[in-house]
Amino acid sequence: xxxxxNLSYDAEDEEDKExxxxxxxxxxxxxxxxxTGPNGGGKSTxxxxxxxxxxxxxxxxxxxxxxxxxxxxxxxxxxxISYGFQTPVRFKGLTVSDLIQxxxxxxxTQADACEYLSEVGLCAKxxxxxxxxxxxxxxxxxxxxxxxxxxxxxxxxxxxxxxAGIDLWSFQSxxxxxxxxxxxxxxxxxxxxxxxxxxxxxxxxxxxxxxxxTRQGPAKEVLPELxxxxxAVNPCxxxx
Length: 240
Description:
With 240 residues, this protein is an alpha/beta fold. It is 35% helix and 26% strand.
């Protein structure tokens, strides 16, 4: 379980003007959660605060009963928190097999690595020995990143706008990956997104506007409200 207590982040001195204002939130175990809201509302900042990439100005972050507010990214990763970047990192000279092996933090066979690639819809024989470099498209790279998170088997996996910067075909494939993850969720999956198709497969939707939570509830209740809204708060940008 993840709990945010009176969490705030003041970014006045940074180029990133997103601000989190006194957020209180509890996310239960084994849930598929989507956080949405207008651009500049604080979604990515909140994700980075949970992962430890940014430090809150005030408040606490409690994970499985432990105060992790002052823990580093590495310490949080060791506790079972993963973070998927909007633009995954490329590693020249490192193969996909090497990356999955490092993520697993244990000895795994090449067959195991291939299985993780198959989970995200990639033909293992075409990717297992490729370098994680500029030869990979954005969609391929994001699916490989998800494969590494699956290999880690973390309790709490965060994906920050996974649809950003990828083409329509890659987006369709990515949706299928998340649909499979939702069907057999082990641990909590938290996705930052404003794409309707991603919001539609969530168990719960949290709406963040101007650094504050304005709505939280089951997706079947919250999503119709967002789609029917005529206000600027409506975050949905439908990609069909």
